[in-house]
Design brief:
3-stranded antiparallel β-sheet, 15 strands, about 45% strand
Length: about 210
C-alpha cells in the first residue's frame, strides 16, 4: 500500500511540474518578442501566441506578419505570425522613431513618429488597421502643420493646414470628398486657428 501512495505522489509531482512549465511558457513574453535590425534603425515587436488563432481576416485590410526574420504586409491574408502587441522602432542613437500597437496584424490606437532629434513628426489614430479619429502632423521644429480626422480610412470633417506663418487653410471633407464650406465662418475660425498654429514668443518683463 505504501508503494502505491509513493507512486501516486510521484505522478502528482510530475503533473504539477509539467503544468508549471506550461504556465511559465504561456506568460513568458520573451518567447514572442522579436527584434529586426535595419540600416539606421531597429524594430522591436511581439507576435501572436499559438493559442490566439487568426480570427476573421478582412479582404480590405493590410495585415502585418512576421516570417523569415522579416515583417511583411499583405492585404486580406498572411503566412506567418501576425504582429500582436506593442511595436517600437528605435534610431541607432536609441531615440524613438515610431511607437504604436498591433492587434492581430492590424494597427490600433494611437501611433506616433519622431525625427532623429526627438521632435514629434506625427500622431495618427487607427482602428482595425485603418486611420480612424484625429491626426496631427508637425514640421521639423515641432510646429503644428496640419490636423484633421479620419473615419474608416477617409478624411472626414475639417482639415486645418498651415500654409504660411500667419495663414491657415481650412477644407471640409465628408467620407474622403471635399464639400462646400459655409461662408461667414472663415474669419472667426481663421483667427482661432492662428492662435493654435502660430508660435508665440513670450518676452521677459523688464523691471
Amino acid at each position: 500500500m505504501r508503494i502505491i501512495y509513493i507512486t501516486v505522489l510521484q505522478l502528482c509531482l510530475l503533473f504539477l511540474q509539467a503544468d508549471a512549465q506550461r504556465i511559465k511558457s504561456y506568460f513568458d513574453a520573451d518567447n514572442y518578442n522579436h527584434t529586426i535590425n535595419y540600416d539606421h534603425y531597429k524594430a522591436v515587436f511581439y507576435v501572436q501566441r499559438p493559442e490566439t488563432g487568426s480570427g476573421n481576416i478582412k479582404s480590405d485590410r493590410k495585415y502585418a506578419w512576421f516570417s523569415g526574420n522579416q515583417i511583411r504586409y499583405t492585404q486580406g491574408g498572411y503566412s506567418g505570425k501576425l504582429l500582436n502587441g506593442i511595436y517600437n522602432e528605435f534610431y541607432d542613437t536609441k531615440g524613438l522613431k515610431t511607437q504604436g500597437l498591433f492587434e492581430m496584424g492590424l494597427k490600433s490606437g494611437k501611433w506616433k513618429s519622431w525625427g532623429e532629434d526627438g521632435v514629434l513628426d506625427s500622431i495618427v489614430n487607427y482602428s482595425s488597421g485603418k486611420p480612424n479619429g484625429k491626426f496631427e502632423k508637425y514640421d521639423q521644429e515641432g510646429v503644428l502643420l496640419e490636423r484633421g480626422s479620419y473615419r474608416d480610412g477617409q478624411l472626414n470633417g475639417k482639415l486645418e493646414k498651415r500654409i504660411g506663418t500667419d495663414s491657415i487653410q481650412v477644407t471640409r471633407y465628408k467620407r474622403g470628398k471635399v464639400v462646400a464650406y459655409k461662408p461667414g465662418k472663415a474669419v472667426k475660425i481663421t483667427r482661432w486657428l492662428k492662435s493654435i498654429f502660430t508660435k508665440k514668443d513670450k518676452k521677459p518683463k523688464t523691471i
